[in-house]
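Hey, can you fold this one?
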Amino acid sequence: MNTHLLRKLQRKTLIPTQIAGYIATLLVGLAIVLLSLQAYCDLRPLLTQQTDVFKAHTVTVSKNVTMFKTANKEGIYFDDKELTSLNEQPFVKEVAHFTSAQFNTEAAVSFGGQTLRTDFFFESVPDEYLDVESSDWHWDSTANYLPLVIPEDYLNLYNFGFAESQSMPVVSEAMLSQITFNVVVSGNGKQRVYDSRIVGLSSKINSILVPNDFLQWANAEFGNSGDKRSSRLLVEFTDASDERIPSYFEGHGLNLSQNELESSKIAFLFRVGIMFLIAIATIIIILSIAFIVMSLNLIVQRNRNLFVNLYKIGYTPRQIARFYQTVIGIVTLCSIAAAATVALMTRNLYVEKLASLFDIDKGGSTILACAVISAIVLVPLYNMLILRMIKKSFR
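Sure. Predicted structure:
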């Protein structure tokens, strides 16, 4: 029997509906997996860099101000017992302290022909909690320079409130970083004037920040270095969606920044959603693989006598299996290519919209790489299983 007749005979053993079912399930499952992985790769850097959602689940915590606390200011500070209780909570990963300035501070800036003078305050936090990256964020005790970070809201209040009412020009973030002004620090009978500049705007921390090492030194030099109490904390959660968090903070009279907590919940829900989609799609792919394997096994069992006769007249198991390996290999590669195409086309729909708002990488390397990996894994796997089934039918 020649090869052409062998292939013609083997084609009659295939069941088209089973092949079609395999194609459909593999295509759908793989398309969902590829698109989910690509969406995660696209959106995670976007959210990390531009909305700060994926950074540590950190919120600012303070005590609720009540009528009693207005008369007794000591009530706004956290004592050792409260700090210990907070650190021991299972949903708390780490607690960091705000350090407040314990000296007088005045700023003076000439702008638009006018000189503005104001008293204000300094605070500092550990650098790892700061959401501003700047090469100028450092303090040198031998230099007369002091960098500042202010909240984004301060610039908005100036541009859309103060500047408009006083007929003064508005200021962009880039322009703001070029403005230098004097900061006068005084206390304990001492005074020092620093050249200062705003090096960044914080969207997370509503305070005027200076480097932590400067404030530690300045409190010892100009203020009361013995007062280490904190009225505000930075609390990092292990899981910001933990349902115990709201009840604990409400029960202990603590106030936390809900916007940051909501952002952390969005991050958690995003990850859970992606994981859920990938899990469902993976189940579909596993079922499609199981389906085609069972179909091939049924074909082998139904045509066992045919394969035995082919073997007796001189065909090797590899020659008999080659037809099925070729068919399943081509079908699998076509399904993977179709799934990758569907994923790329779907991705292009949301990338075009996002690209108009954000800087996003339009490359589809994740989809193509995962498609190639799928082909490398599935085709040899099917070849091995088909050959094993054929050999087993001869026993």
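Residues 58-257 form one domain. Let me know if you want another pass with a different chain boundary.
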